[in-house]
Amino acid sequence: MKNTRITLKDLAKDLNLSASTISRALGNHPAISASTKKRVQKKAEELGFVPNSIASSFRKKRTQTIGVIVPRIDIHFHSLVISGIEEFAYNNGYNVTIFQSKDLLKREKEIAKTLQNKMLDGVIVCLGIETKSCDHFKKINKLGIPLVFYDRVPTDFDANKIVINDFESAYLATEHLIKNGCKQIGHISGSQTTNIFKARLEGYKAALKKYNLPIEESLILFTNSLSYEEGVQCAETYLKSSLKPDGIFCANDYTAVSVIQVFRKAEIKIPEDVAIVGFSNYPISKIIEPHLTTINDRAFQMGEAATKLLIRQIEEKDDSITSETITLKTELIIRESSTRS
Amino acid sequence: MKNTRITLKDLAKDLNLSASTISRALGNHPAISASTKKRVQKKAEELGFVPNSIASSFRKKRTQTIGVIVPRIDIHFHSLVISGIEEFAYNNGYNVTIFQSKDLLKREKEIAKTLQNKMLDGVIVCLGIETKSCDHFKKINKLGIPLVFYDRVPTDFDANKIVINDFESAYLATEHLIKNGCKQIGHISGSQTTNIFKARLEGYKAALKKYNLPIEESLILFTNSLSYEEGVQCAETYLKSSLKPDGIFCANDYTAVSVIQVFRKAEIKIPEDVAIVGFSNYPISKIIEPHLTTINDRAFQMGEAATKLLIRQIEEKDDSITSETITLKTELIIRESSTRS
DNA sequence: CTGAAAGCGCTTACAG
DNA sequence: CTGAAAGCGCTTACAG
């Protein structure tokens, strides 16, 4: 049963043709006559010929495979991005091989190293949380393998990047709260070593400034990972604080949800007493009551855009790899948690 | 810059050794002297030698790569399974290539076909919702490629399967409701063309029988995809119905959450008036109020178990591929939505 | 302990 | 329109 895969040679012998002709016929080469092509295709079908794409990859030095490094697959944002990557890749004849760094720098480095063996046609990366420098990716570039980063992108490194405009998104979210009558707006922020959270904080501050509202440092709370649990703690901090917010822009949806729940338990009305905006448009934002106003962070599109850019670079004839940064437009999704009539 | 990858031959020339020796030294072959190994490794490092694993795969007819076909990556259950697969594979030196069938039979067939080219060492599959027959996977078996199904597994086909005990889990969930004093227990079920939902329905019925409770057909509601929206409809159906449940076992967490929300809006107390149990332990189950009692469906472990079984079959010397079915133990996670003191 | 040789299954430049 | 030949970069059975 096993090892009975037939090869071009077998087909050639069977048809009294050369392997070259078989190869070309199956590859739909223009120089081959239609009748030969038909004969070859028929026989291939008949014998159950399965081309060995490893042999082909080896010969052509093209694997038609894209490597993807994500912190974790089971984080909804990343699974959406991967879905976008897979979809675009599939439609363009590429496969996708997945690696999880688990947010561990050590593991990210290991992966970056083994990736070089794999003869991948290109690589898409979202950096892990521990990663400060990107030296371990420079080698991939040196080997001429196109590389695209998304979301958490390097700063020490002139590379292809797909990002959203975190600053502007945060600005719009905060402005929306202001326009709904909030005067004392708080912010729950993520780790300041991560650029996107820095940018969201800055966008929030910029909106306050623009509308001549004071920036109250006591209303700005920092978390490590924007977890649900940390959100609960932040909410309790607000409750105990002397200066109370009448609106809160949260840097993700989990913390926004936890604030809503803690506040409601404390008989604070959302959005009447406090209006809430989250970030990312997680599924839960449409389920929590009141439904959460949030930012659509275009995860799926990010995957598509990364893959599109990557494939373009793979297939471009000239070797001059240029770096591009694509900023996707986000969208403020207005729901009940922030809407005061 | 590009195409400057050095090969074994280059190293050999540089060191005045044969390519065979270089290959063996790098592969840590026992016949090579320690001093030679050191020399080779040092030089390899020095010249930045990156082995071409495609050439190696081609030669060895082993790609160290596992293919995974899932309906969708962005469904939390599957992303958890994939995470388990990737983790186990990574720790055992295998890569993971992902394909999404999008629950489309046509696409699943396409993927199954192209998979055969890829010389994958093994394949893990969760069938799409449209799939009734598995003929398109039989060829993979015939080629001697080990194959493991998980969750949605074939019935027309003697294959390796990783499943949970849906019947027993449903039985336990229902029994739990009974023990919490429920007398009229409803069930929200999924598509009856899918075995796991059939089994959950049967487990629910079996528990009722066991405890001499009547099976009221009007309390059993069917949905297509157990979506949140369908859950809302089911909840409304219950509200309008003459026979009202005092407990509901939902075949997933989304419908359970929607029922909780609709009922609470209708001033029905959870769990006092109606106790609710879900299925899958989605993140939302810990967030919804009251927290949802549910079944931990062991998604991550399913991925690990599938990969473990697959790799065992890949690495087993003898060709006699046997079929194994592994049933993972689930766990009833008791939270507030069902707990009457 | 090391080397020469063959070959994995394709593709493609060259020749006709 | 078709074929002969070379070769991609490894690995491994065989020989010494």
Automatic annotation (TrEMBL), chains A, B:
Gene Ontology MF: a single term: DNA-binding transcription factor activity
Keyword NAD: no
PROSITE patterns to which the protein is assigned, alphabetical: HTH_LACI_2
Record's keyword annotation contains Amino-acid biosynthesis: no
Keywords tagged on the record: DNA-binding, Transcription, Transcription regulation
SUPFAM superfamilies: lambda repressor-like DNA-binding domains, Periplasmic binding protein-like I
Sequence ranges assigned to domain HTH lacI-type in this UniProt record: 6-60
Name listed for the protein in its UniProt record: LacI family DNA-binding transcriptional regulator
Organism: Mariniflexile litorale
